[in-house]
Structure formats: structure tokens, C-alpha cells
Design goal:
This protein is α+β, with helices and mostly antiparallel strands and 276 residues long. The chain has 13 helices and 11 strands. It has 2 domains: 2-108, no CATH class; 126-274, 3-Layer(aba) Sandwich (Rossmann fold). Helix 5 runs parallel beside helix 8 (89-99) and helix 6 packs across helix 7. One of its GO terms (biological process) is DNA restriction-modification system.
Length: 276
Amino acid sequence: MSRILIRLLAELETAGILAALPRQSRYLLRKQGNIALPRLIAAISEQGYYLAPSAGLCVERLGGIRPAAEKTGLSMNTIQALKQGRATLRSYLILAVALKSRVRLQKINPRAALWTAKENTWTTPPSLLQQLYPLLPGKTFDIDPCSPCEGLTAPVRAHVHYTERHDGLHQSWGKGTYCYVNPPFSQLRAWIHKALAETGNGVVSILLCPARVDSIWWHTLVADRIPVVMLRGRLQFGGGDNRQQKAPFASALLIIGGSAQLPKRVAEATGGWLAR
């Protein structure tokens, strides 16, 4: 693993990322990669790069959580944490070594960010939200569990906003609440699983996602299981610096929980069509 870490350190230094890290973080990074993966990924993103391949992709290519744990010697909890973008760089490098994959920095471009969620701040078009608000009790969502910010500047009108700092994936979404979920595309499955689990508390979630009907996760999690409203055209997403990007894919709303009439009402309100 030392060889792969040395190569990564050289790339981080060339890109100016190493110098931007606090002294303690640099020390931990050089000490066999004992730096928190989210901290390093955030520093890499700030400089316009991302780490490839993603930990989630490594886990998938190794056959899933259990096979990845067996092939790496890491615990299943650690593998699960890696899939969610947590754990340490050291654990990620062990994963990459088991896959015999080269770890490298890749330059972000805005269009790629929409496909791969290397930037996690692509916000929902306000026009779509305005179509959804009238369907809600009080014309407001109760919770936005993956919001880029809190308060009046948050893009979604909600009583509660969970940001990355709050880790909405591991928070309770209340009981009988209405949630709007625009998750990081790289963690779609985790967020769909979370929304499904929250239905046990009577939570209703409207989840925006790419309409990737050819993907394994779509067939295993969505098809014939969750009501889907296919949105017409390509959505114009907003970035963290207020720039706009037209999505290079079709989008869908997953209606998780709620009444049997809600999917039809969402389709009518948004001009989409209800997948059968």
C-alpha cells in the first residue's frame, strides 16, 4: 500500500492540495494515510479535483460489501462506511489495492459533476419545487435531509434542513413528516434505502434522481417497487456558486410512502407521467 500512497501524495502535491491541508492533516496523511476520507475529499474538491475510482465503485467491483470485506480483511462496517464516503484514506487504499486499481486525481468539469456527483451542491430547479409545495400540508416540506445550507437561503422551503454537517442519512426524519430528498448522486442507493426505512415512521419522501432505468440499482430498488414520476425534458440544475447546468440525463421523482393518490397528484402537478 505504501507505493500507492506515495504516488497519491505526489499527485496531491503537484495539484497544490497537500499545501492547502492543515499541518496535522498533512502529518496524518503521510502516516500511512490515516486521514479521515471526507476531510481529504473536501480538500480535493475545493481545488477542482476528485478521487478516482470512488470507494463505492470499488466495493461494487469487488462484488458488494461482504465480498469486499473478505478480499480486503476490512470489517463489513468499514466497507459500509467507505460506500457512504466515510472511514479513512488508509481503508480506501486497501480497497483499491484489492481491486488492483490505480488511485488518481481527476479534474472536475461541470457536466461530469452532474453525472457523477463529484460536486454535491447541485440544487433543484425552483420551478419544480413550486409545483410540489401546493401538494403539501402547510405548503411546506417538513424536512430537507440533504440541503446545501440552512435557513432562508436554503433552496427548499422546509421547517428543518440537514446539511452535510448534520449527516441527514443517519438522522431521524421524524414521524409522519413530508421530506424532499435531492441526494448526492454517488449515494443514491443509500438515500433510497433510508427513505424506505423511514416509511416505518409514516414519513413521506419525494426523492429526485436520474432516471437511470438501465442501472442495476434501478431494477433492484425502484422498478415495480416504488411509484415513479418521470419528468419531461432535462432539468436545469443550480450549482453551489449559482451557475446553472442542464442535466445530461432525464430525471424522475420517486414517491416513497404516502397515499395511493400522491404519485398521480405529483405527476399532474409537474407535468410528468406516472410510470406503470
